[in-house]
């Protein structure tokens, strides 16, 4: 913040001009986001609440008795019950304990819940990272409920469970939750963990000097558990559920100079598509204008659209979504579920109805783009840690243990280059369409020297560190083993 003595020397006209410029810039940024949304919308990439309701069809929805708040013991009991009642499609595990010793539970829902199936993407939802923002926590319980109850009965849900490994963590901050109180509209009691650290500021930051006091001095147990978790599973897509307003924000959360302005990732259009897929399927999140149903909860500087770049909204250093994007293969967005952080239980049914199709539609996004398996041409064994690059300077991802990979992409034509220090690189051109994931497999030839990898891939790795979206210059070598366009999870409108 600027010292007040300095402000006295700045002419009023300069201040006014700066203010006007700032407002102009804000409207331009908003406009460009809405233009991009319009463009993606014209490609029919988004579905509305009503369209999703038709696509999903009839299903056994959450029973009214469940629309209650559940403390840690009740949550533990509920998750245990689901895992016992639906043992074929669930697997309950803990990624560690909070500082006060509460388990950080995750329930997997999938047709083969105890193992990673080659080619099947792993998805995650994380709720209640801020302990007093509780709607995500409860909504995740309701999501578990409908996925379990309707498996084998509703076609849409059955396909989703069969084709996706869905990890659901209702609470990342159970200690904070235990201090939070029902009825808290916009408070902070219970937001942080028991060491008073804001877990969404506690991850290693892109710009460490931007960390604030609330980031804490050390990586907290809850944060470390999540970081380990991301090394254990090849997550592809994720959402982190918060509360305080109604929108979706996406990386980056921080800019090099910590300024409040748009800081797009090289995958900006993809993040806009992912975020708006959630917002558009919500009953009102997508609508321009004030974010809250209760006018007293609207802030003047709140975004007026249902989605926003994190740094454009307000810069955050050490947030979880940036860490996911920079350090893992997982693309994560942050959903602000509603304006009241800890609403009274009587509001939960209404809130679930607003969000249920968004939560399903967002999971489907894990099945869009390109996926495949990278194998050794001679042995046909999968190659782990191969690098997969998209020819637009975008993020480079790596293959999982079995050689399988997933690269989320918007529709378009891309050059996919695969490389590994012990293999010759390959490049293929692929046409990604709207609803289907394109399967693209690679069989790589071993090389005796690492020179070819260095020459082919060194340039790509350099490119990936910039935000320049220029086409890759890596030469195309061979073509792929097979390309086949396959199914998506639902038959869309
Ligand atoms: Zn939050």
UniProtKB/TrEMBL annotation:
Residues 68-366 form the Peptidase M14 domain. GO terms for molecular function: metallocarboxypeptidase activity; zinc ion binding. Its cofactor is Zn(2+). The active site is at residue 336. The keyword Zinc-finger does not apply. It comes from the Eukaryota. Residues 1-22 form the signal peptide. InterPro entries: CarboxyPept-like_regulatory (IPR008969), CARBOXYPEPT_ZN_1 (IPR057246), CARBOXYPEPT_ZN_2 (IPR057247), Peptidase_M14 (IPR000834), Peptidase_M14_domain (IPR050753). SMART domains: Zn_pept. GO terms for cellular component: extracellular space. GO terms for biological process: peptide metabolic process; protein processing. SUPFAM superfamilies: Carboxypeptidase regulatory domain-like, Zn-dependent exopeptidases. Belongs to the peptidase M14 family. This is Peptidase M14 carboxypeptidase A domain-containing protein. It comes from Plectus sambesii. The lineage of its organism: Eukaryota, Metazoa, Ecdysozoa, Nematoda, Chromadorea.
């Amino acid at each position: 913040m600027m010292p007040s003595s300095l402000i006295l020397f700045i002419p009023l006209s300069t201040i006014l001009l700066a203010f006007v410029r700032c407002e102009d810039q804000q409207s331009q940024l908003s406009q460009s986001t809405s233009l991009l949304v319009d463009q993606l919308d014209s490609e029919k990439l988004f579905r509305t609440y009503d369209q999703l309701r038709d696509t999903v069809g009839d299903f056994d929805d959450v029973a009214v008795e469940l629309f209650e708040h559940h403390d840690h013991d009740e949550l533990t009991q509920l998750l245990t019950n689901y895992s016992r009642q639906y043992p074929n499609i669930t697997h309950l595990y803990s990624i560690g304990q909070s500082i006060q010793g509460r388990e950080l539970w995750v329930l997997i829902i999938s047709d083969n819940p105890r193992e990673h199936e080659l080619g099947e993407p792993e998805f995650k939802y994380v709720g209640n990272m801020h302990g007093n923002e509780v709607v995500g926590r409860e909504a995740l319980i309701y999501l578990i409920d409908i996925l379990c109850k309707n498996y084998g009965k509703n076609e849409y849900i059955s396909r989703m469970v069969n084709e996706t490994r869905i990890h659901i963590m209702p609470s990342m901050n159970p200690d904070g939750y235990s201090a939070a109180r029902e009825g808290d509209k916009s408070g902070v009691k219970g937001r942080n963990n028991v060491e008073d650290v804001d877990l969404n500021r506690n991850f290693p930051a892109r710009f460490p000097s931007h960390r604030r006091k609330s980031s804490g001095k050390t990586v907290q147990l809850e944060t470390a558990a999540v970081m380990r978790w991301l090394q254990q599973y090849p997550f592809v897509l994720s959402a982190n559920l918060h509360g305080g307003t109604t929108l979706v924000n996406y990386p980056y959360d921080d800019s090099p100079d910590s300024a409040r302005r748009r800081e797009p990732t090289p995958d900006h259009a993809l993040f806009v598509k992912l975020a708006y897929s959630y917002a558009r399927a919500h009953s009102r999140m997508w609508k321009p204008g004030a974010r809250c149903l209760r006018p007293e909860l609207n802030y003047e500087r709140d975004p007026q659209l249902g989605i926003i770049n994190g740094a454009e909204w307000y810069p955050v250093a050490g947030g979880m979504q940036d860490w996911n994007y920079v350090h893992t293969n997982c693309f994560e967005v942050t959903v602000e579920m509603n304006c009241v952080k800890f609403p009274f239980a009587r509001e939960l049914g209404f809130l679930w109805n607003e969000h249920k199709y968004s939560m399903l539609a967002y999971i489907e996004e894990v099945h869009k783009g390109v996926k495949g398996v990278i194998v050794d041409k001679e042995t046909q064994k999968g190659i782990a840690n191969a690098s997969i690059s998209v020819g637009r300077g975008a993020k480079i991802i790596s293959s999982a243990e079995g050689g399988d990979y997933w690269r989320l992409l918007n529709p378009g034509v891309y050059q996919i280059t695969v490389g590994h220090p012990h293999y010759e690189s390959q490049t293929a051109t692929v046409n990604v369409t709207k609803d289907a994931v394109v399967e693209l497999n690679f069989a790589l030839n071993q090389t005796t020297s690492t020179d070819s990898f260095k020459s082919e891939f060194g340039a790509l790795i350099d490119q990936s560190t910039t935000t320049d979206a220029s086409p890759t210059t890596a030469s195309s070598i061979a073509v792929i083993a097979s390309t086949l366009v396959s199914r998506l999870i639902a038959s869309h409108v």
